[in-house]
Every structure is written in C-alpha cells, then in structure tokens.
Amino acid sequence: MNNSLKTKEDVIALVQTKMNEVYDPCGLARGLSIGMVDMGLICSIDVEPVDNTWKVFLRIRFTSAGCEYFPYFEREIRERLEVYQQIESISLEWDKNMDWTPENLSEVAKSKLEEHNEKLLSAALQRQQLR
Fold first, then answer.
1. Looking at the DSSP assignment, which residues form a beta bridge with residue 45?
2. Which InterPro entries does the entry link to (predicted)?
3. pLDDT number for residue 1
4. CA-closest candidate to residue 63, choices 93, 104, 116
5. How far apart are CA 111 and CA 125, in angstroms?
6. pTM of the predicted model over 0.90
7. Max Cα separation, the chain?
8. CB-based contacts of 54: which residues, under 8 Å, 6+ apart?
C-alpha cells in the first residue's frame, strides 16, 4: 500500500480532495466552479481495508429530482480514483431522499456564490445605468 494511504483518514481525505475536483455542471453553467464536497453532495464516505488496498463506499445526493448528471458524476469520480492502485473498488450509491438544500453548501461555496451574485447584480445595475 502506498505510504500516503496508510489509514482510513488518509483515504477519506484523498477521496474528498478528488471529489471536490468534480464540479457541479449546473454551477459551471452559471460560471461557478464548486466541487461536489463544497456543494454538499456527499452524504457519506466509508472505506474498508482489504489486504493492502481499500474499498471505497460513497453515498451521494442530487440537488433536485430532475438532475440528469448521474453518469457524469460517476464517470468523473471513477476517473479520479481508479488511478490509485491502493483503491481496489469504488461503490457509489445515490441517495434518493432528495434532501439537498442550500444549507448543505460549505462556507467556501457560500462565499463563491455570494461573490458571483454580487458581480451579476453589479453588472446588471451598470447596464441599467447605461440605458
């Protein structure tokens, strides 16, 4: 096993980092780069040691029932984690509760969203003044 993935905490930290590199497509469409962790899309990350490798179990939520990005999220997660030989398997479970709210956003994401909204408002006001 790679020295950097000795403990469950090491594996969970790696998984969180890699999942936060997967940006929410709806946010990207609005000009926001917010990763899955900061979006609050991760319900749980569990890891289990197996010999010299790890099994990773992820439970992920959608922001709405109409979200069609399951294949995108799954592909991006697998691409980022399967490169690690110490990760033997990745199991993804999609939470069907549809309980995501803006309160699930991290402080980083809330700050990005607030800054983005302020820029949009400022641009709209400037356009209005030019008329």
1. 58
2. Fe-S_Maturation_MIP18, FSCA_dom_sf
3. 41
4. 104
5. 21
6. no
7. 69
8. 1, 5, 11, 47, 48, 86, 87, 88
Task: In whole angstroms, give the CA distance from residue 116 to residue 37.
Answer: 19
Provide the CB-side half-sphere exposure for 45 (13 A, CA). Answer: 20
Question: What domains, with CATH codes, occur in the chain?
Answer: 3-130 (3.30.300.130)
Provide the token pair at 66. Answer: 């109409």
Structural contact between residues 35 and 20, judged by C-beta atoms closer than 8 angstroms: yes
pLDDT band at 3 (very low <50, low <70, confident <90, very high): low
CB 5 within 8 A of CB 11: yes
**Which amino acid type is present at position 31?**
G
User: Which amino acid belongs to residue 40?
Assistant: G
- Cα dihedral: 22, 24, 30, 32 (round 10): -50
